[in-house]
Design brief:
564 residues, alpha/beta, ABC transporter transmembrane region fold, Rossmann fold, 2 domains, five-stranded parallel beta sheet, 11% strand
């Protein structure tokens, strides 16, 4: 999908269904209330110009009673303004956080389901890289700025309609003389404000045009830098052990230099906008008085009407200048929306890859069979290039099979069984109702209590603590029992060997009927790996086990080899 060509349609298809979601009645009530409060703000702004006119007329007439009367009215305006502004802010922010919450849940549910968050990493990085930034920051901008921009546009349209009527009435009829030709013009202040705003908008658009691309580049570079920092943090132990700090410093500085380059590009675009807005603000301050004062000098309007016409002129110009005033915000908003749409497009592409209508994929089905069966299975890469020959066969329950993998396709086969590698052809049949468990080279240990981390992904309530302690003793990690209730970043605190021992404990607790070991014991001494394999065989006697390992001593544990 080319979301750039159908930008607004695509965005509303993605995010607009918020107004038809399950809480649509509350959402529409808040939206209507926001509209009503905006109309009240405009009515108040119009009334304030009328109040100004009455005040300056009273001053011009030197009427103390009139000034006192306007002072009382000012108190009412003050109370009304505060009330409307406060309620407006509350309703607007409820709508903002509600829309952001809904869209965040929608994107996360699509990204974090069925391994999509993992599969998307194999796609060429471009419009979907740094999903963390797109979900955390770009969704916030896409929703908050959409409401802010929509509200300000609606406000300006109302302001334009309201104050053009006032300005038209105050302008009256002015006759312009060109030689012997007299040309009467009604509402000349309205036409001057429109002409001024159009010229300023065209000039402002041209001056601010480079801001869109500069903002997109800047946000991308910032996201890349943040991603590199997270990457180093996640791999800090490996970097420290191998003394890779110099390399990482240079990589970070290169990434930051890219930010500096994009910052300079954005600064150049900002300078163009600043040159325009500075001159524009000065001209907008002086022009209304200059064009309205002749009628006051001629005695056609009072001082109050002059002040009112100046304010109405400024309100009209402000309303007509909405595109210019919001150019930078529009650029930032559109960039963030495109980044969110890019992530969703990539996820849609993955959905197509695994769709039942797509014949070029490995199908994994639960079947009423007693063995893990491979029917004409061939692994391919994302471009359709063959990674393995076609293979057929079956692995019976309780059988231990060593994967012989010269081309490093064994892990891809495990991913295919798990449904994470659909690229290829053929069919894999998994015995129906039988549990599977995958042991990766390094188990994921969330930063919770050690008890929680070991039980993951099940809650710790699923296991008795005495059982967990027994398993820790069995793998030779009795020293960790005292830390079961301690919360820490276990991936950083524990050594690779300790983490792999915990992977064995986790497998023993979950008691799967099919166990897939991918180099999950390779950090252990050969004797300990053999002990762990024997422990798994003893505790899980009926489990089928497939193993990928580089340890020769593990061969004796397996009945046969499967070559890929």
């Amino acid at each position: 999908m080319n979301h750039k060509k159908n930008f607004f349609t695509t965005f509303m298809k993605l995010a607009g269904s918020y107004w038809t979601s399950k809480n649509c009645l509350i959402i529409w009530a808040e939206t209507v209330l926001l509209i009503v409060l905006t109309v009240m703000q405009i009515k108040l702004a119009v009334y304030i110009t009328q109040w100004n006119a009455a005040l300056f007329d009273a001053i011009e007439q030197r009427s103390m009673a009139g000034v006192k009367s306007q002072a009382v009215i000012l108190i009412l305006i003050f109370i009304g303004s505060i009330t409307i502004a406060t309620v407006h802010l509350i309703v607007k922010r409820r709508l903002l956080i509600g829309w952001r919450t809904w869209l965040t849940e929608k994107v996360i549910s699509k990204w974090i389901q069925q391994g999509r968050h993992y599969q998307i990493t194999f796609l060429s990085p471009s419009d979907h890289d740094n999903p963390d930034g797109r979900i955390a920051e770009d969704i916030r901008i896409a929703t908050e700025d959409a409401i802010a921009l929509s509200h300000s546009l609606f406000y300006c349209l109302l302001m334009l309609a309201s104050f053009s009527q006032i300005l038209w009435g105050i302008s009256g009829k002015v006759v312009f003389e060109f030689g012997n030709v007299l040309i009467p013009v009604m509402g000349y202040l309205v036409w001057i404000s429109i002409s001024y705003s159009i010229c300023a908008s065209i000039l402002g658009w041209w001056m601010g045009k480079p801001m869109t691309s500069a903002t997109h580049t800047r946000q991308t570079r910032e996201a890349d830098f943040r991603h590199n920092l997270i990457d180093i943090q996640n791999n800090s132990q490996a970097i420290a052990l191998i003394r890779g700090e110099t390399n990482e410093q240079e990589r970070l500085l290169d990434s930051f230099r890219a930010i500096i380059g994009s910052y300079a590009e954005q600064t150049s675009a900002w300078i163009r906008i600043q040159l325009f807005t500075s001159g524009y603000s000065v001209a907008s301050m002086a022009l209304p008085i200059l064009v309205a004062s002749p009628r006051y000098i001629a005695g056609a309007i009072s001082l109050g009407m002059l002040i009112q016409s100046v304010q109405a002129f400024q309100h009209m110009v402000s309303a007509l200048s909405w595109p210019v005033d919001n150019m930078a915000q529009i650029a930032k908003w559109r960039t963030s929306v495109e980044r969110v749409l890019g992530l969703m497009d990539a996820l849609d592409h993955l959905e197509h890859d695994i769709s039942p209508l797509n014949s070029r994929q490995i199908r994994v089905n639960e079947a009423n069979v007693s063995a893990l069966t491979f029917n004409n299975v061939r692994l391919e890469d994302l471009k359709g290039e063959k990674l393995s020959i076609v293979f057929n066969g079956e692995i019976k329950a309780g059988e231990h099979v060593l994967i012989s993998d010269q081309a490093n396709n064994g892990p891809k086969l495990f991913k295919a069984i798990a449904g994470l590698w659909p690229w290829g052809s053929g069919q894999i049949e998994v015995p129906s109702g039988q549990s599977t468990f995958f042991m990766p080279p390094k188990p994921y240990l969330p930063a919770k209590s050690l008890f929680d981390a070991i039980c993951y992904p099940k809650p710790k309530a699923a296991f008795d603590q005495a059982e967990v302690e027994k398993k820790l003793e069995q793998v030779g990690q009795k020293a960790l029992i005292n830390q079961l209730n301690q919360v820490d970043a276990w991936e950083d605190v524990l050594s690779n060997e300790q983490q792999q021992y915990l992977g064995v404990v986790r497998a023993l607790l979950h008691r799967p009927q099919w166990l897939f070991i991918q180099e999950a014991l390779d950090s252990l001494p050969p004797n300990d790996e053999e002990k762990m394999l024997k422990l798994l065989a003893r505790e899980l006697p009926h489990a089928g086990v497939l193993t990928i390992t580089h340890q020769p001593s593990a061969q004796a544990f397996h009945q046969r080899k499967l070559k890929i």
